[in-house]
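[Meeting: bench + compute handoff]

Bench side (C.D.) handed over the final construct sequence. Compute side (W.E.) agreed to return the predicted structure before the next meeting so the bench team could plan truncations. Sequence as handed over:
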Amino acid sequence: QVQLVESGGGLVQAGGSLRLSCAASGSIFGINFMGWYRQAPGKQRELVATITSGGYTNYVDSVKGRFTISRDNAKNTVYLQMNSLKPEDTAVYYCRHRLISGADYWGQGTQVTVSS
């Protein structure tokens, strides 16, 4: 049974930084891409950033230049470095591992709160 375990969320002032981590417990093979998504109260879940097995990255426009996604293939772990945080970044952040087989795994979510 594969589980994704997230860590690193919390409360930070505007302009501050946080680093999220998402590690897969259990054996997992054939990852297509890993990603981070977020959901703010009353809003739909949105993509924040993704990274493919080859290292290609993609970001939503609102975080470009502030957030950096990276991965450790050996550990099946994905990270999200968030700098220059803004109150509008406040949300529950979820990680996702999408396999080549089409299987999808999601983390339980970690709260990020940015105070003004």
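W.E. noted at the follow-up: The longest strand covers residues 31-39. C.D. will use this when planning the next construct.
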